[in-house]
Protein: Glycosyltransferase family 4 protein
Organism: Kocuria tytonis
Amino acid sequence: MKVALLAHDRFPIIPPFSGGLESFTWHLARGLKRRGMDVVVFAAPGSDPQLGIEELDVEPLVLSDEARNDVSMPPEAQVRETFSYMQVMRAFAARPDIDVVHNNSLHFLPIVMSPAIPQPVVTTLHTPATPWLEPALRLTPTAHTVAVSDSVAQMWSTVTPARVIRNGVDPQEWRPGPGGDALVWSGRIVPEKAPHIAALIASRAGWKLRIAGPISDRQYFESELRPLLDENITYVGHLDTHQLRTLAGYSAAALVTPAWEEPYGLVAAEAMACGTPVLAVARGGLSEVVRAPGGLTSQPGADEARTVAAAADMLPLVVGMDRRRVRRYALENCSLDATVDAYADFYRELVGA
């Protein structure tokens, strides 16, 4: 079987990853290849050459001066993105060797064009409903959709009946660590991930905190997070997988502090696979990944100060958890092998149908 993975066209599929979507696509591609499948990937140029996969290229956007001067022209990045996905879908129509297309992009075009190509198209819903994807799925009632959590499936339930296949982590990659005398927060530095809340929790509880991840929103970093940094609350940069695994494994606990309905919470699964217990804000699918007594601190609508106080009070319980039990829980509930097997079975089901 040959599977085409359609990723975001803004970021290459290569570590250190720009976000969870890129990490998911990279690990899925590698897992499918281990199961004997051929994999084709469309993403931004520069994906990991060690994956040994075929990359789909598209023609760059060419606009005349007249077109650029059109006062009603949408942002050029939006035009370029749409043009890229249009080319890719047309390329799939001319590729009888490809059996299944797995869409992990956040663009509407692969969905609305899916009836026009011979291959079945699977779309994984990595986010809550967006104004691009929602109407596309309403226009395409035959679309095959997967949600990364029960929470995401429920969010989309009035639009599409999504099958649930949870994300997973590789226990050989995220190995157990001894713990340490500091906390860790990892992820994209953006308002919806809210690392500033983690900084406030650590300060209130009297713990050191190390924050890692790409600064995806510079304004948020400068206005909300930087003022909280000091000798105890430090930003350690955008780390590769090895560095991040070491950081997580040598931390007493991980803080996961979303300010939105987190679709899944991959960073929590990664930390737990290292044996590091997680103190998490109960938002969206994160409450399916981290279960009591894993440290669910608040529900949607709780104000920030109350969340910080409750989390600081709960921190001693979380830090004291048995690291071996934490890792065992991750192996039983957050397995990458289970994720890849579930997608492979779904592909076979669609091809057989």
In short: The two ends are 14 Å apart (CA to CA). Confidence is low (pLDDT under 50) at residues 293-301. The chain is about 40% helix and 15% strand. Residues 272 and 329 are 8 Å apart (CA to CA).
